[in-house]
Design goal:
The complex is a heterodimer of chains A (251) and B (330).
Chain A lengths: L1 H19 L1 H25 L7 H22 L1 H7 L2 H6 L5 H23 L2 H4 L6 H28 L6 H14 L12 H8 L2 H14 L9 H24 L3
Helix pairs in contact in A: 1-6, 2-3, 3-6, 3-8, 3-9, 3-11, 6-8, 6-12, 8-11, 8-12, 11-12
Chain B lengths: L2 E12 L2 E12 L3 E5 L6 H8 L7 E6 L2 E2 L4 H7 E4 L11 H11 L4 H14 L15 H13 L5 E5 L7 H17 L3 E6 L2 H7 L2 E6 L2 E6 L1 H8 L2 E7 L2 H10 L5 E5 L2 E6 L2 H14 L4 E7 L3 H9 L8 H16 L1
Parallel strand pairs in B: 3-8, 3-9, 6-7, 7-8
Antiparallel strand pairs in B: 1-2, 1-4, 4-5, 9-10, 11-13, 11-14, 12-13
Classes of the chains: A mainly alpha (251), B alpha/beta (330).
Chain lengths: 251, 330
């Protein structure tokens, strides 16, 4: 019981901090709009993807991108907690390490989900029909994507000593995972090496699954959705174990 | 008197360096106990082991009857900690910081509001409960940390350098609050400090710690008595030579040489000073200046460790940088 209260407390703190930071929220809303309207419109009218509206195509990809970047940024906030000393206050409390990790993980995951959900209403602006059932189908998939990503962020935060290394995460985790997920271009026509590089990226399966539920018949699935879900589940479990192990080692 | 903390040959080694060397001591319920020592003496390491943050290399300790190695959760519930470095979440209000703490330490929800009110009152922050912590001054943050450490009714409160980096007025405030605590809450307080005055004025007993071992442990008055009835301080252009001679011929009391000054602790300076002056004259050494004082904690410290404690902030910083460099070098 006391562990659950501890987890709840840490969860609440993460969510409160996320919602209070106004610049971050403004950014969370505006950045996807730029992608959708400028990048999306530009690509729609210059590159031919017969039978597919490019903006509709990248919409699920942008949700995943926003979630990916938020997960990394918020996950790494553990480093701030350490820098400002608050991590010590949590770590010397009677709450177990596992619970501290769970609280942090669930809190950050909630932030990431909020960030993903914020983007849904924009679908109307570009004329994609968003159905309530579509959202209900998409949410569990988004949760599966979120947990694995947040655990990656927390793993790096546990291993990194200072915030300076965040640039490396941008370059070597965020961008490759984003570019190789099929979020921006279909993977059907690219060279084989790029295809394979994308297939080892768990986000590819996340984007594929989201498109399957959001685009309906216009989207030709890369994989059956059951396989997508299986891969995401494995991704979550593996990253959870790695993240928890790394976090429990923090001194 | 019942013991609340007992340590048994507590030891911590970092590689070849021994930070805390076989410390055994007993602290009684209701005491205000100081660990006094220079930076790097092992105070914080010793405290960290008691707080179950660091695992001892060997030996163990009991706090409130719980073993620090095997029953860390119970130990953590029994103690409150105020760290040397700030540890509040500045993006939250002080009430929120306290609520988080109360939940982490399972303070019953029904009691939380009342308890938060109490501790805020105790440290004089009642009016600022709903202000964000980044609007607080350093002294106010410290006070909130003390309030937070008290929130879950700890049996023992650890204060690691509670007044470091604070201006004299804030320091006086914190001292007042600590004195108040003694009266109002039934609790044992253990603080580390390198300010003599702090240990002298606040504490029942003082342990002087140097290079990982306890070199003296007693009440401030006994410690001062042991140093002697009077301190004779002599300055001369040949201080070092005179000091060596005094020790060699065993002329009077306990002689220590520091900062171009000789300090001699004697029973009664009125009788012993003439002999010392005569000895110096016979040895051909001219004495420039003599003062007679009653011993203070600084003299006690020099008496036991042969060195003076650092004052101010500069040595603290160089100490830390040096430590970081040492760590990197390894």
């Amino acid at each position: 019981m006391s562990e659950i209260r501890g987890i709840y407390t840490l969860w609440l703190r993460e969510v409160k901090k996320f919602l209070r930071e106004k610049p971050r929220l403004i950014n969370a809303i505006c950045q996807p709009l730029l992608w959708l309207f400028i990048f999306g419109t530009g690509m729609r009218f210059s590159s031919g993807m017969p039978g597919i509206n490019y903006q509709e195509f990248i919409f699920p990809g942008l949700i995943v991108q926003a979630m990916l970047f938020t997960a990394m940024f918020m996950g790494v906030s553990v480093i701030w907690d350490r820098e400002f000393g608050f991590l010590k206050e949590i770590l010397v409390s009677p709450i177990s390490r596992t619970s501290v990790f769970l609280g942090k993980m669930l809190g950050t995951s909630t932030d990431v989900m909020i960030q993903g959900i914020i983007i849904f209403p924009f679908a109307y602006l570009i004329g994609i029909p968003v159905h309530i059932f579509m959202v209900l189908e998409a949410l569990p998939l988004m949760i599966l994507i979120t947990i694995g990503l947040v655990c990656i962020g927390l793993t790096f935060a546990s291993l990194m000593k200072s915030f300076e290394g965040f640039g490396l995460i941008q370059t070597f985790i965020n961008l490759p995972m984003f570019f190789l997920s099929g979020a921006l271009f279909p993977l059907a026509n690219v060279p084989t090496w790029l295809q394979w590089a994308s297939y080892v990226n768990p986000l590819t399966y996340g984007v594929d699954a989201l498109r399957t539920v959001m685009m309906g018949d216009t989207w030709v699935q890369l994989f059956p959705i059951s396989l997508d879900i299986m891969v995401l589940l494995c991704f979550d479990i593996i990253m959870f174990v790695i993240g928890k192990t790394a976090f429990c080692r923090v001194e | 008197m019942k013991p609340i903390i007992e340590t048994f040959n507590l030891k911590k080694q970092f590689g070849p360096y021994t930070a805390v060397n076989n410390i055994s001591l007993t602290i009684n319920k209701g005491e205000v106990f100081a660990l006094l020592g220079p930076n790097g003496a092992g105070k914080t390491t010793f405290l960290s082991m008691l707080c179950t943050i660091l695992r001892p290399t060997s030996g163990t300790a009991l706090i409130n009857g719980f073993d620090i190695s095997r029953e860390s959760a119970q130990v953590r519930r029994s103690i409150g900690i105020v760290f040397q470095d700030p540890s509040v979440d500045t993006d939250m209000t002080s009430r929120e910081n306290l609520q988080m703490h109360a939940n982490l330490y399972s303070v019953p929800v029904a009691e939380q509001e009342e308890r938060i009110k109490q501790v805020l009152e105790l440290v004089g922050l009642s009016g600022r409960a709903d202000d964000f912590m980044y609007t607080y001054s350093g002294g106010m943050r410290r006070r909130l940390e003390i309030a937070r450490g008290l929130l879950h009714y700890p049996r023992v409160l650890f204060l690691d350098e509670p007044t470091i980096g604070l201006d004299p007025r804030s320091r006086e405030h914190i001292w007042d609050y600590i004195r108040n605590l003694r009266k109002r809450e039934d609790m044992t307080i253990i603080l580390t400090t390198h300010y003599m005055e702090e240990a002298d004025r606040l504490c029942d007993r003082i342990a002087i710690i140097d290079q990982g071992t306890i070199v003296a442990l007693d009440t401030p008055s006994v410690l001062k008595q042991e140093v002697g009835g009077d301190i004779i301080t002599i300055r001369s252009d040949k201080s070092q030579v005179l000091s060596d001679l005094l020790i060699q011929d065993n002329i009077a009391g306990h002689v220590s040489y520091h900062n171009d000054e000789i300090k001699i602790s004697v029973q009664d300076a009125n009788f012993q000073l003439p002999g010392i002056v005569e000895y110096a004259v016979n040895a051909g050494i001219r004495i420039d200046h003599v003062t007679i004082t009653k011993p203070d904690m600084n003299d006690v410290f020099i008496h036991y460790t042969g060195k003076e404690l650092y004052h101010g902030e500069t040595p603290e910083r160089t100490g830390r940088i040096a430590m970081m460099k040492r760590r990197r070098a390894r």
